[in-house]
Design brief:
The protein has 393 residues and is α+β, with helices and mostly antiparallel strands. The protein has 11 helices and 17 strands. A hairpin with an 8-residue loop joins strand 13 and strand 14.
């Protein structure tokens, strides 16, 4: 890509309006009011644009957040609303936009970047790879067949997401891939579709709840559906009470939908395998700063080991070369050098880092070259629950 394109923040109202037009065309809401609502939620300072001769060719949003890995929070940039005007597509404009964004993130000390991809090819070119799961499940209310009312269920009105933050964080901390939600992400999590109402409930006592559920109701064809936007259950009692609460809607509601991983813990409580996945995709992760990313995640506390890595990064040269990851007491320390016993591209490091795929699986797919000992150590270090998130951005 030539230097005729310029990357930067929005500097005036005309650029903001132009980006709104581009993104409106890309994502199907060209109305000025839709852009105004969205840009207010994200904050204009969090958008980046790419321009040619002062004309906005495209842009994106950067949401400052974090992801939990190994019960440690790793600073993360969530990339949203990547859009390029039609007349600039096919010429590498999107790749230049992403390249400039990643260089900015590296300069700002952000170890990770996560996004949902409309096309994997673009993002793989700049070092992203599949990192975790976004999955939606459904079950008929008639098939829940659980009756356990030992815990109370208490409505939260009006719906104020701040009262759920502590419970969410307790669950997120032990769930690989979950986001540390900022104000914007919480708004996106609880906001219902247009003309719908949000309902929220604590499970257990309000002083010491054991979970919560946030949902809206809508009709789809001939089905009346509860769509759960967010849920947390910290105990089996809370899980059974949640299912009972949802089953008690069966005279008016036909189906329950919720977000989870492909290995869903809630479905384990159901008497039969009647819950089904009806939608699943994988979000993508980019290791922006290899050393920081490896040092900031958590590791199994019982493992003491060294992993000798040899990383190739064609975009961010600072990540190229050999690293030694030394793990002790659940913490990692990274130094330059070592034997380079596990060779991989920065792309492949992403699903290894999150635990989406094991080192052995990646080796079988030709993504890793490594000694048997290095594969064993990597498997020990990057073990954990399947990485997933309930957030869409």
């Amino acid at each position: 890509m030539t230097s005729q394109f310029e990357y930067g923040s929005i500097s005036n109202a005309e650029e903001a309006k132009s980006l709104g037009v581009v993104l409106g065309q890309c994502f199907g809401d060209p109305s000025p009011s839709g852009w105004q609502t969205y840009s207010n939620l994200i904050g204009l300072e969090n958008f980046r644009i790419i321009s040619q001769a002062s004309k906005v060719a495209g842009g994106l949003a950067i949401l400052s957040t974090g992801q939990w890995y190994g019960s440690e929070l790793v600073p993360t940039a969530a990339i949203a609303s990547v859009g390029i005007a039609p007349e600039y597509r096919g010429a590498g404009t999107a790749a230049q936009l992403m390249t400039s964004t990643l260089k900015e993130l590296y300069a700002n000390g952000i170890p990770l970047s996560v996004l949902y991809a409309a096309t994997q090819r673009l993002y793989r070119k700049v070092g992203y790879e599949q990192g975790g799961i976004f999955c939606r499940w459904s079950v008929s209310t008639a098939n829940i067949q659980i009756s356990d009312r030992n815990l109370s269920v208490q409505p939260v009105t009006p719906v104020n997401h701040e009262v759920f933050h502590k419970l969410y964080q307790q669950n997120a901390k032990v769930t690989n891939g979950h986001l540390e939600r900022n104000q914007c992400l919480w708004e996106l999590a609880v906001e219902p579709p247009k003309d719908q109402e949000t309902y929220a409930y604590f499970i257990g006592s309000q002083a010491q709840p054991e979970g919560y559920v946030i949902f809206f109701q809508h009709q789809e064809s001939n089905k009346r559906i509860i769509v759960i936007r967010d849920w947390v259950v910290l105990t089996v009692e809370a899980g059974r009470r949640l299912w009972t609460f949802l089953a008690d809607h069966r005279s008016q509601i036909d189906q329950i939908q919720w977000r989870s991983s492909t290995v869903d813990p809630l479905s384990l409580l159901l008497p039969e395998q009647t819950a089904k996945i009806f939608d699943s995709e994988r979000w993508m992760l980019r290791i922006v700063d290899v050393a920081q990313a490896l040092e900031k995640r958590g590791y199994p506390t019982q493992v003491e080991a060294q992993l000798h890595l040899d990383v190739r990064d064609d975009l961010l040269g600072e990540n190229n070369g050999q690293f030694v990851l030394t793990v002790s007491g659940g913490k990692g320390e990274v130094t330059r050098g070592g034997k380079g016993e596990l060779q991989l591209d920065v792309r492949t490091l992403a699903p290894l880092y999150t635990g989406l795929f094991t080192a052995q699986q990646l080796q079988q797919m030709g993504q890793i070259k490594a000694t048997h000992g290095a594969i064993t150590v990597a498997t020990q270090l990057f073990t954990g629950s399947q990485p997933w998130m309930s957030d869409k951005f």
